[in-house]
Hints:
By secondary structure, the protein is α/β, with parallel strands linked by helices. It has helices at about 10, 35-40, 75-90, 110-125, 135-145, 160-170, and strands at about 15-20, 25-30, 45-50, 50-55, 60-65, 95-100, 125-130, 155-160. It has a six-stranded mixed beta sheet with strand order 3-4-5-6-7-8, sandwiched between helices. The chain has a two-stranded antiparallel sheet with strand order 1-2.
Amino acid sequence: xxxxxxxxxxxxxxxxxxxxxxxxxxxxxxxxxxxxxxxxxxxxxxxxxxxxxxxxxxxxxxxxxxxxxxxxxxxxxxxxxxxxxxxxxxxxxxxxxxxxxxxxxxxxxxxxxxxxxxxxxxxxxxxxxxxxxxxxxxxxxxxxxxxxxxxxxxxxxxxxxxxxxxxxxxxxx
Length: 173
């Protein structure tokens, strides 16, 4: 080997595990060259509060809404309004809503039905993946509310974890 020349073996780096903060999932690079780290798109934060975070996930082409805690009624409205705002700004068609941290789900159903959901439909949202709350009562409340939306034109799925919800959204164009 000539002086100052690096062998191919010297370029191989160990695998790296990256913590994806949205949903707390882990992703392991399989290339070992780490070029993929530059190609991987991280979620772009939009709004962060004590109760929730809203971000844009360029890999999914989706708005990601993560609840950090059970919100007050005003924080709930603010959170879903921020989701709608980012949908409109990005012309988004998909939403991932991570509800795992909720310990109750007592949303203002009338306001959701009459005000917010029609705006989602008007904005062109086509797919919604919801990650169930870990709390069984909150999961029951969310299911009960969701069952009342029988005329919803948005394709919706409920997942037990973030990877399942991401995979489902990834399969949508």
